[in-house]
Specification:
Layout: E1 7-9, E2 15-17, H1 28-37, H2 53-67, H3 73-80, H4 86-89, H5 94-100, H6 102-118, H7 127-147, H8 153-160, H9 165-168, H10 178-194
Antiparallel strand pairs: 1-2
Helix pairs in contact: 1-10, 2-3, 2-7, 2-10, 3-10, 7-8
């Protein structure tokens, strides 16, 4: 019996096998492009532009750096890339992930490992680093929920936890055209990659 096609052709020309991804088929331009077009909150946000996963990732990296100001560039890069697999599998809200089951998590893990290896990170981020990135992710979700997704602060506090006001001081949600977000995501990736010690 013929196996179903499991690869996707990227704009770079790479063919990424979703079931068996290899680092050689990962390009940052493909990631940045895809994430700039994937909407957070299933697009249920206020504004003239969707709030993209690429924009969210930039914010998470900024928050992570505030949480861990002495963190090396490699873990800041891990924070920037924390949702990178979504460039091919999309951004599913938590209730959908739960309904899909463990298969989604396994697919995400395989893609994450290939992406990490491609950019000089360990396939799996250490648990303590992953926990800090998740904390930054939850702060970002709180900001998004209250600023663009229609949640009250009380609702956001209940679902995501109330953030330290000092941690988010001066940070705002930005809605921008995908071309701008893609450019900034790629530039931030290049800066962090250059800051990693060999």
């Amino acid at each position: 019996m013929k196996q179903p096609r499991a690869w996707q052709r990227m704009l770079s020309g790479r063919r990424l096998d979703l079931l068996d991804p290899t680092p050689m088929d990962i390009e940052i331009e493909d990631i940045a492009h895809g994430l700039a077009f994937v909407a957070r909150w299933n697009g249920q946000t206020f504004g003239d532009w969707p709030y993209s996963v690429a924009e969210h990732s930039l914010l998470v990296e900024t928050i992570y750096a505030r949480l861990e100001p002495k963190s090396p560039a490699k873990w800041r890069l891990a924070a920037l890339l924390h949702d990178a697999p979504e460039y091919v599998i999309g951004d599913m809200i938590s209730p959908v992930k739960a309904a899909v089951g463990p298969g989604y998590g396994a697919l995400d893990d395989r893609l994450t490992a290939a992406i990490h290896i491609r950019f000089g990170l360990p396939a799996a981020v250490p648990a303590n680093i992953k926990k800090k990135i998740k904390s930054a992710d939850r702060v970002s979700a709180w900001m998004e929920a209250t600023q663009i997704a229609g949640f009250t602060k009380a609702e956001a506090d209940r679902f995501f936890g109330k953030p330290d006001p000092a941690l988010i001081e001066g940070l705002d949600i930005h809605l921008r055209p995908p071309v701008e977000v893609r450019r900034d995501f790629t530039a931030r990736h290049e800066t962090l990659l250059a800051g990693m010690t060999p």
